[in-house]
Automatic annotation (TrEMBL):
<dbReference type="GO" id="GO:0022857">
    <property type="term" value="F:transmembrane transporter activity"/>
</dbReference>
<feature type="transmembrane region" description="Helical">
    <location>
        <begin position="24"/>
        <end position="43"/>
    </location>
</feature>
<dbReference type="InterPro" id="IPR036259">
    <property type="entry name" value="MFS_trans_sf"/>
</dbReference>
<protein>
    <submittedName>
        <fullName>MFS transporter, DHA2 family, multidrug resistance protein</fullName>
    </submittedName>
</protein>
<dbReference type="InterPro" id="IPR020846">
    <property type="entry name" value="MFS_dom"/>
</dbReference>
<dbReference type="Pfam" id="PF07690">
    <property type="entry name" value="MFS_1"/>
</dbReference>
<dbReference type="GO" id="GO:0016020">
    <property type="term" value="C:membrane"/>
</dbReference>
<dbReference type="InterPro" id="IPR011701">
    <property type="entry name" value="MFS"/>
</dbReference>
<feature type="transmembrane region" description="Helical">
    <location>
        <begin position="274"/>
        <end position="299"/>
    </location>
</feature>
<feature type="transmembrane region" description="Helical">
    <location>
        <begin position="117"/>
        <end position="138"/>
    </location>
</feature>
<keyword id="KW-0812">Transmembrane</keyword>
<keyword id="KW-0472">Membrane</keyword>
<feature type="transmembrane region" description="Helical">
    <location>
        <begin position="92"/>
        <end position="111"/>
    </location>
</feature>
<feature type="transmembrane region" description="Helical">
    <location>
        <begin position="340"/>
        <end position="358"/>
    </location>
</feature>
<feature type="transmembrane region" description="Helical">
    <location>
        <begin position="235"/>
        <end position="253"/>
    </location>
</feature>
<keyword id="KW-1133">Transmembrane helix</keyword>
<feature type="transmembrane region" description="Helical">
    <location>
        <begin position="178"/>
        <end position="199"/>
    </location>
</feature>
C-alpha cells in the first residue's frame, strides 16, 4: 500500500498559495533568511581590520573571509537550483538554513584564520540554496495576484540589508567582538527553521545530477569572478582567466544543449520572454555595480567628502529603492511588466546620465541617484515577477537560480568595466565615464524590455 507524499498533497491543496496565517509564517521564514544571507555578505567587510589583528593573519589572507563566501555563492547558485528541483525546494532550503546556521556558529568559534575561511566556505554553500530557492518557494506559498507585491518587499529587504549592512556591522563591533557578527545568525536561524515548517513545495522530480556539468559551471564562474578581479592588477593573468571562463562556458553549453536536465536552464532561456528578462536583469546589475564603484571616487575625490559622508551619500540609491520596491510590486501585479521595466530603465538611464553631466554639484547628483534608485526598483521588481511567472511552476527553482546568476553576472561585468577604465584612463575621468557606462547599460535594459513588450502572450501553468 502506498501513501501520497504530504508535501505533494499540500501543493495540490494550496495550488494558488497558502491561507493566512500560515502564509505569513512562510513569508517570514523566506524573507528573514534572505536578509541574513545578504547581511552576511555586507557586514563582514567592516570587521576585516579587527579580524586581521586578533587572529594575527596577513591582510591578503583575511580578505578571503569575504571573497570565499561570495565566490562559493556564485559557483553554487545554479547547481543548487537544479538540486532543489530534484529533491524538492522546501527540503533543500531547510538544509541550506541548517548549514548556514551551523557555519555561522563555526565562524563565531574560529580560533584561526584558516578555520574562519573554511567556515565561510560552508556558509556560502548554505546560502546558495537559500538565494536560489526563495523565489520558487514564494511562488508556491503565495497567490499569483500577490507575487509582484511580495517581490517588491523582497527587493526592499535586500536593498536595506545592502545599505545598512556596514552600519549594522559597525554597531555590533561597538558593543562586542567580531565573532558576534556571526553568532547573531544562530538564534535567528533556529527561529527560521521553526517557521519553515509552514512552507510548501513539490517533493522533487528525482532527476540525477550531472556532476561534470556542475563542476564545469563552478569552474566557469570561479574563473570569471577571479579573473575580473585581477584585470586591473595583472592584465595578462586576469584576461587569461576570463578567456578560460568563456571557453569553459562554451564546453558546458555544448554538453547540455540537448540535455533534458541542464544545470544552466537552457530550456527556459529558449523562451523569448524569460531570455529577454534575464538579459535586462544582467544589464541593470551591470549599471548598478559600475555606479557603486564610480560614486565613492566621485564623492571622495571630486567633492572632497570624508568617509562617513561618503557612506551616507551612497545610501541615496538603496533607500530610494527600498521605498520604490513595494510600490513597483503593486503596479507589477496590475500593469504590463515589460512597460514598467522600460520606464524604469529610462529613469535609470536619465538619472545616471544626468549624474555624469552634473558631476561637479553634490545635491543634483544625489537627486539623480534617487531617480536612478527608483528606476532600478521599477525594473528589478516587475522583471523578477516576469521571470518567475513566465515559467512552469515546476521550473520555479531554475528561475530563482537564474535571477541570482543574472545579478552576479551583471555585477561582474560592471566591475570588470570599471577595472578596465581605471587601468587605461586617468583616475579623475573615470567616475564620470563609469556613470556614463551605467547610463548606457540602463538604456540597453530599457530597449530589451521594450522588445519584450512586443512579444505575444506565452501562457504557463
Amino acid at each position: 500500500m502506498t501513501h501520497a507524499d504530504p508535501t505533494a498533497q499540500d501543493v495540490a491543496r494550496f495550488e494558488d498559495g497558502l491561507p493566512a496565517p500560515r502564509r505569513y509564517f512562510a513569508i517570514f521564514a523566506l524573507l528573514v533568511t534572505l536578509l541574513l544571507v545578504v547581511l552576511d555578505g555586507a557586514i563582514a567587510n567592516v570587521a576585516l581590520p579587527t579580524i586581521t589583528a586578533e587572529l594575527d593573519a596577513p591582510t591578503s589572507q583575511t580578505v578571503w573571509v569575504v571573497t570565499a563566501y561570495q565566490l562559493v555563492l556564485v559557483m553554487a547558485l545554479l547547481p543548487m537550483a537544479f538540486l532543489g528541483e530534484a529533491v524538492g525546494p522546501k527540503r533543500l532550503f531547510t538544509i541550506g538554513v541548517t548549514v548556514f546556521t551551523l557555519a555561522s556558529a563555526l565562524c563565531a568559534l574560529a580560533p584561526t584564520i584558516n578555520w574562519l575561511i573554511a567556515a565561510r566556505v560552508l556558509q556560502g554553500l548554505g546560502a546558495a540554496p537559500i538565494m536560489s530557492l526563495t523565489i520558487a518557494l514564494l511562488r508556491h506559498s503565495l497567490p499569483a495576484r500577490m507575487v509582484g507585491t511580495i517581490i517588491g518587499f523582497n527587493s526592499m529587504v535586500v536593498a536595506l540589508a545592502s545599505a545598512l549592512g556596514p552600519a549594522i556591522g559597525a554597531a555590533i563591533l561597538s558593543v562586542g567582538s567580531w565573532p558576534w557578527l556571526f553568532a547573531v545568525n544562530v538564534p535567528v536561524g533556529l527561529v527560521v527553521l521553526a517557521a519553515s515548517v509552514a512552507l510548501i513545495g513539490p517533493s522533487g522530480n528525482g532527476r540525477k545530477a550531472d556532476v561534470i556539468a556542475m563542476g564545469l559551471n563552478a569552474l566557469a564562474f570561479a574563473l570569471l569572478v577571479l579573473g575580473a578581479g585581477r584585470v586591473a592588477t595583472d592584465a595578462l593573468q586576469g584576461w587569461s582567466m576570463v578567456a578560460l571562463s568563456v571557453l569553459t562556458f562554451a564546453v558546458l553549453i555544448r554538453r547540455e544543449w540537448h540535455s533534458e536536465t541542464p544545470v544552466i536552464p537552457l530550456d527556459l532561456l529558449r523562451k523569448p520572454s524569460f531570455r529577454l528578462s534575464t538579459m535586462a536583469s544582467t544589464s541593470i546589475f551591470a549599471a548598478q555595480m559600475s555606479s557603486f564603484v564610480a560614486l565613492p571616487f566621485l564623492f571622495q575625490h571630486g567633492f572632497g567628502l570624508p568617509a562617513m559622508s561618503v557612506g551616507l551619500a551612497m545610501t541615496a540609491w538603496p533607500l530610494t529603492l527600498a521605498l520604490a520596491g513595494p510600490i513597483a510590486g503593486r503596479f507589477a501585479d496590475q500593469v504590463d511588466t515589460a512597460r514598467l521595466c522600460t520606464l524604469g530603465g529610462i529613469a535609470m538611464a536619465v538619472g545616471l546620465g544626468l549624474a555624469a553631466v552634473w558631476a561637479t554639484e553634490l545635491v543634483p547628483v544625489l537627486a539623480c541617484l534617487m531617480l536612478a534608485g527608483a528606476g532600478f526598483g521599477f525594473v528589478q521588481v516587475p522583471n523578477n515577477r516576469n521571470m518567475l511567472l513566465a515559467v512552469p511552476r515546476a521550473r520555479a527553482g531554475a528561475a530563482g537560480g537564474s535571477q541570482g546568476t543574472a545579478r552576479l553576472l551583471g555585477q561582474t561585468i560592471g566591475g570588470l568595466a570599471m577595472s578596465i577604465m581605471f587601468a587605461l584612463l586617468p583616475d579623475e575621468s573615470v567616475p564620470r565615464l563609469g556613470l556614463a557606462f551605467a547610463a548606457g547599460a540602463s538604456a540597453l535594459s530599457a530597449l530589451i524590455s521594450l522588445r519584450r513588450a512586443a512579444l505575444p502572450y506565452e501562457p504557463t501553468d
